[in-house]
């Protein structure tokens, strides 16, 4: 195209996301795709029927900017039921077209040119471009290698007078780690002392395993006052293609988020909101069934890998399992990931792409276990043969 050479990209370092790249490679090679985070099984049948019914019933025009009042009320009920928190659906809860859009709106609503945003590496890939487009700068603080705990001393050392926001993600993609209540206490005291805000990505909130609880910023009074919390129906209801979620924040932050949301997307898809509302009204207990179901998938996958040469620490949450291939190869994860997709027919994601400075000698690949039994079985069989 004439003139493209004159475009000074605002996102020069951004290419196609690793998820799309690996999914395309998996398709090209006919490999089992454990790279992208989406379930290969059907969402609840009643939810799918509700979507068709909503469209047939004529719910096809713009819904209210903040989301359907009925859905927001049900979501506030869910937050009470699962987290014990009271949220005002009018002023504190906004339905958005995917958590990605909610995160983008939150970040751009509060980050100004020159602001610093602390991100914890490995970090989900959508945060940094939003910070950059807002004129801010990400400050990368590595999680502790091995257990991916937050190193609060390093976080404290990274705080400056320009720190505006800290991005939290629990349960964590790609690491499958979770934060504790003590982590939230430490974060709250730092945020209060230094006056920064928190953006908490909790899209995998219902996928916390081994009897542990999800700890939300919404449950922590000091964080509740200064945080955005993001959720995704795509994750909770196995409908990633429906791209709908919601964001909870105190009224003043919600008002700012809505100003941006109004001109990025304006609304979230109407029939999807009606369908989720109908489903949640009939099955409020459904999200509570997810942890056991996904834990069974994790355990099945790991059980099948018990005799492999991979080392692993079972994921505490989300639907990703890291496998350490250090006993098999010392090649870089980016190289190996592609080669094994071609040669062994299993696609994964290299962890180093989520890090500004991957630790030397790190040998980790991320596998999504939100897959049906036969797919996990065949993938494990191939991985055991390596
Ligand atoms: C940590 C994390 N945040 C946000 C998203 C995006 O959610 P949505 O599809 O609702 O935009 C994902 C999707 O994989 C994710 O893993």
- Mean pLDDT, to the nearest integer, reads 96
Strand content: 5-15%
Rg is 21 Å
User: Would you tell me the structural class of the helices and strands?
Assistant: alpha/beta
Low-confidence stretches: none
Describe the largest sheet: 7 strands, mixed
**Shape type:** globular
Q: What is the share of helical residues?
A: 25-40%
The kinds of small molecule bound in this structure are:
pyridoxal-5'-phosphate
In spatial order, strands of the major sheet run 2-8-7-6-5-3-4
- Distinct helical segment count: 14
What is the straight-line distance between the termini? 45 Å
Note the run of SSEs as H and E. HEHHEHEHEHEHEHEHEHHHEHEEEH
DSSP summary, beta strand count: 12
Description of the structure:
There is one protein chain. The protein has 386 residues and is an alpha/beta fold. Helices cover 40% and strands 14% of the residues. It is built from 14 helices and twelve strands. The strands form three sheets. It has a seven-stranded mixed β-sheet, with helices on both faces. A three-stranded antiparallel β-sheet has the order 9-12-11. Strand 3 (116-121), helix 5 and strand 4 (137-142) form a beta-alpha-beta unit. The longest helix has 15 residues, at 69-83. The chain is globular, with a radius of gyration of 21 Å. The termini are far apart. The model has no long low-confidence stretch (mean pLDDT 96).
């Amino acid at each position: 195209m004439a003139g493209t050479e004159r475009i000074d990209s605002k996102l020069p370092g951004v290419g196609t996301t690793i998820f799309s790249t690996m999914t395309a490679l998996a398709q090209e090679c006919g490999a089992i795709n454990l790279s992208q985070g989406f379930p290969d099984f059907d969402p609840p049948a009643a939810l799918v029927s509700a979507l068709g019914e909503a469209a047939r019933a004529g719910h096809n025009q713009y819904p209210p900017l903040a989301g359907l009042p009925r859905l927001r009320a049900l979501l506030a009920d869910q937050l009470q039921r699962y987290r014990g928190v009271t949220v005002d659906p009018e002023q504190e809860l906004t339905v958005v077209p995917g958590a990605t859009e909610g995160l983008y709106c939150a970040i751009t609503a509060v980050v100004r040119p020159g602001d610093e945003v602390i991100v914890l590496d490995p970090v989900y890939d959508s945060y940094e471009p939003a910070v950059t487009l807002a004129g801010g700068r990400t400050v990368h603080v590595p999680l502790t290698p091995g257990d991916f705990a937050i190193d609060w001393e390093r976080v404290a050392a990274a705080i400056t007078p320009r720190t505006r926001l800290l991005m939290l993600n629990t349960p964590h993609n790609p690491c499958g780690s979770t934060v504790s209540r003590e982590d939230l206490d430490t974060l709250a005291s730092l945020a209060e002392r230094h006056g920064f805000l928190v953006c908490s990505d909790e899209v995998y909130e219902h996928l916390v395993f081994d009897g542990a609880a999800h700890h939300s910023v919404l449950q922590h009074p000091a964080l509740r006052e200064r945080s955005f919390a993001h959720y995704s129906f795509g994750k909770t209801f196995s409908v990633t293609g429906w791209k709908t979620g919601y964001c909870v924040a105190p009224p003043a932050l919600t008002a700012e988020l809505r100003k941006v949301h109004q001109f990025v997307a304006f609304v979230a898809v109407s029939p999807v909101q009606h369908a989720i509302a109908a489903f949640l009204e009939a099955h409020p207990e459904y999200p509570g069934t997810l942890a056991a179901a996904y834990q069974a998938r994790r355990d099945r996958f790991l059980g099948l890998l018990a005799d492999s040469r991979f080392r692993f620490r079972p994921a505490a949450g989300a639907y990703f399992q890291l496998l350490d291939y250090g006993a098999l190869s010392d090649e870089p994860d980016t190289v190996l990931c592609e080669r094994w997709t071609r040669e062994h027919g299993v696609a994964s994601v290299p962890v180093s792409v989520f890090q500004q400075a991957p630790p030397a000698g790190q040998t980790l690949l991320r596998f999504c276990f939100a897959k049906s039994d036969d797919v996990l079985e065949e993938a494990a069989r191939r991985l055991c043969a390596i």
